[in-house]
Amino acid sequence: MSTSSEPGGTASGRTATGTADASIAEGRAFPPREDGRIVGVGIDVAQISRLEGLLERTPALGERLFAPEERELSLASRAARVAAKEAVGKALGHPGDFSWQDVTVQRTAVRRPYLVLRGATLAAAEELGVTHLHLSLSHDGDIATAIVVAERAEPSPTANTEVPR
Asked: Boundaries of each 4'-phosphopantetheinyl transferase domain copy (predicted)?
């Protein structure tokens, strides 16, 4: 598959003969979608040491925040999951309106994270026509972060397809 605007281009920016594509040198704009496929983007950060303190002071909080399979993870991984749960709410346009248990992070066989929704969170996603949730998790030092992109399979019939000038 060619990702270049030049015939025969590749994702690396080189043609089949190994020369650089002219379009790579010139650059290419990646404007946001205007067709309504992207329902929302959510991002959140969690301070790992703060979560640790909360869990030490209130042990029952772990049962409220995490599904049973999440409770045994490292502190940094649990903090990333808190950030993911918050980011889902933001991507769906309802931060704070969902049960913590409604959102869990699972991993594929190759350890790629994905989201499982239940309850009110699943109902909200389905009402919005969400068919894909893209998730990225990270932690470094004392900060864990998550980004969620909620996407529809088809463009929204009410989307603003006009690009603002």
From this structure: 40-143
